[in-house]
Amino acid sequence: KKEYGGSAVLDIGVYVLQFAQFVFKATPEKLTAIGNLNEHGVDYSETIILEYKGGKRAVLNTHTQLELCNRATVYGTKGRITLEAPFHFPTKMVMRTEAGETVKGFELHTSKLPYNFENSAGLAYEAIEVANCIKKGLKESPRMTHKESIQLAEQEDLIRKQLGVSFD
User: Fold this and answer.
1) How far is CA 54 from the centre of its chain?
2) Using one digit for the tens of pLDDT, what is the confidence trace for 95-108?
3) Which UniProt keywords apply (predicted)?
4) Which is nearest to 156 in space by CA: 26, 85, 25, 60?
5) What are the tens digits of pLDDT across the range 25-42?
6) Closest Cα partner for 113 from 102, 128, 123?
7) At 151, which helix (H) or strand (E)?
8) Distance between CA atoms of residues 149 and 18, nearest Å
9) Which of 4, 76, 116, 152 has the fewest CB atoms nearer than 10 Å to its CB?
10) In terms of DSSP bridges, do strands 72-76 and 79-83 run parallel, antiparallel, or are they unpaired?
11) 74: helix, coil or strand?
12) How many angstroms separate the CA atoms of 32 and 34, rounded?
């Protein structure tokens, strides 16, 4: 519902948008979004195409009512890299080239407390980064700058506008 600030792009879309931002390290030249709205006029799914210089492209999908594969794959001329599900808190990365396949595993932060979502222990790294920045007297993280955060918010606004979602 709008009064709760509901929106697939605001809830989970930020993960796919940030991944594209991380991979391309650039602002897309063009953003195109199509999606579906519920009876309250709130988006519950999107397909987003981000187009970058040099013919580079990101195709992103989100859905709040279906379970998607939740992997992220980057394709290049020499192979591909896949972050296995859930890609936003991965524990496994697979690199495939003509030479073969390499698998790398990642440990998640551990806690005695239970988590609500799969691999959500990965959120601890965000909190740790904030704490480290505060200890160092930093006003922003060099890992995720204010400029990058604003860029993501602007992309989310543009997606909602293209889908016809407004919180006015």
Assistant:
1) 22
2) 999 999 999 998 88
3) Oxidoreductase
4) 60
5) 999 999 999 999 999 999
6) 123
7) helix 146-163
8) 9
9) 116
10) antiparallel
11) strand
12) 7
Burial class of residue 56 (count of CB atoms within 10 Å of its CB; 0-12, 13-18, 19+):
middle
Contact 159, 33 (CB under 8 A): yes
The CATH number of the domain covering residues in 2-163: 3.30.360.10
| Rounded Cα gap, residues 125 and 90, in angstroms | 12
- Given a contact cutoff of 8 angstroms between Cβ atoms, the answer to whether 63 and 45 are in contact is yes
Nearest-10 Cα torsion for 128, 153, 146, 119: 20
pLDDT for position 119 = 78
Q: Which residues of the chain register pLDDT less than 50?
A: none
Q: What is the pLDDT of residue 120?
A: 77
* 3-class state of residue 131 by DSSP: helix
Question: What is the rounded CA–CA span in Å between residue 163 and residue 62?
Answer: 13
Q: Token pair 């204010």 is at which residue? A: 146
168: helix, coil or strand? coil
Residue with tokens 């979004």: 33
Residue type, 96: R
